[in-house]
Amino acid sequence: MNHNKLLKRYGLSTTGKYNDLYHMDGPYITKMACEACHSIGKPNSDGTFGDCAKCHAGHTFSKAQVRKPEICGSCHLGPDHPMKEIHDESIHGTIYANKGSNWGWNAPAGVIIK
After folding, report:
1. Looking at the domain assignment, is residue 47 inside a domain?
2. Which residues lie below 8 Å from residue 111, measured CB to CB, with a gap of 6+?
3. CB 92 within 8 A of CB 103
């Protein structure tokens, strides 16, 4: 049996550590609740990576949408993923809240937005 099948069979992470959530929730809940997001950056069979549409709206996709932290809060929010709250309370979040509306969110890649 290959390495990935063993990891999946025994609910281990890629680091080989026991995955408590997998064993509490079971494979059906894990597939819906965890893999839906955590598979976003996996390689596709055609050589591309991930699925941008899981986070970013395809019809209104813009650099501004990618760069603003609100998009991250759709998943990274709450007691199990508090990254959005941590960002909002940090110095970066405070500066964003006070000055972010004046930044050039649609500037070309590689240009500092201020």
Report:
1. no
2. 104
3. no
Helix, strand, or coil (residue 11): coil
CA dihedral 10, 13, 16, 22 (to 10 degrees): -40
pLDDT in tens, 26-74: 777 666 667 767 666 667 788 776 677 777 776 777 888 878 888 888 7
Q: At 75, which amino acid appears? A: C
pLDDT computed for residue 90 by the predictor: 94
Distance, in Å, from the CA atom of 31 to the CA atom of 37, rounded to the nearest integer, reads 10
Residues 24 and 58 in one domain: no
Looking at the fold, whether 85 and 60 belong to one and the same domain comes out as: yes
User: Rounded distance, CA 73 to CA 24, Å?
Assistant: 25
pLDDT at position 96 over 70:
yes
Q: Given the structure tokens 């007691």, which residue do they identify?
A: 79
Q: What is the pTM of this model?
A: 0.54
